[in-house]
Fold FecR family protein.
Amino acid sequence: MDNDRIWILLGKQLSGDISSAELSELEALLENDPEAAASGDIAAAIWQTPIREVPGAHGSNERIWGTVSPQLQTPRRHPLMRRLLTTAAAAAVLGAAWAGWQFFRPAAPALQQISAAAGGKSRVSLPDGSIVWLNSNTQLHYNKNGFGKQHREITLTGEAFFDIAKSGGVPFIIHAGKVNIRVLGTAFNVKAYANDSEVATTLVRGKIAVSYRDKTVVLRPEEKLTVALSQQPDVLHPQHLEKDSSGMPAEISWLQHKLVFDNNTFAELADKMSRWYGITFHFESASVQQLRFSGIIDTESPAEALKMLRLSRPFNFRIEGKEVYIND
């Protein structure tokens, strides 16, 4: 991409002296280069916003204008020459303003990413003292600048268990897809993988407020809320948690390295096992996907787990590296 050419064409467009052919050229340049797609909006913002005085840079407006103004004041030139000079001035002002805007604009957020790879799990401490356990194939993003003092806000894709530290009234906010969760100090689990059709929040202790669109519900200990992302609910209905024989809710059994499934179809179970082991399933028969299973996977390998499942429902499988093929 010719950056100079884009800025020249933007200058001509903003000065009102761009031809139809040049406009088509500009649109093509911006469309074909993703990194340049925001240039038009940036240029318009710069063009419409007066250059600010900055402490320590007194007279910057005058210096910029002093460089450009002689070109605008050239008397009795040929109309074509005046248009060229006006366009050049527009590009010069735009370029000078762009340089100033880049230099004096606020610093970009210092984004921090924490992740757990497919088939793995991670335990991390956040700057405010909160502890987060990340399930397989999960990512957290947050702005490191002022975290724990000015804000405590993160974005979650995947599944994580949070043990939130209290922090002087600064709320902890989690963005999980279209669902927002607000807490002050508590322990809870959030499951919000990118391809899931729902977001599930499970509260162990404390209190959290879960919001989806224009609805908000407060969860209390041992309650779970599942939000179907394809629907607009009239009300959000929490459910009481069911616990297994060890007293642990199935929703957070992964913290004890257990994969619990209850009357799941083989397709649903395959999604869970894909994340659990970091493998990919391929069904070669549609009917096999509808088989249902209940049980617990603990330390078994993929082959051992599939052999265990096959004791209750008939199917065949083969494993090739990290690819698993299922048929009847």
The helical segments are 3-15, 20-32, 39-48, 60-72, 79-104, 266-277, 302-310.
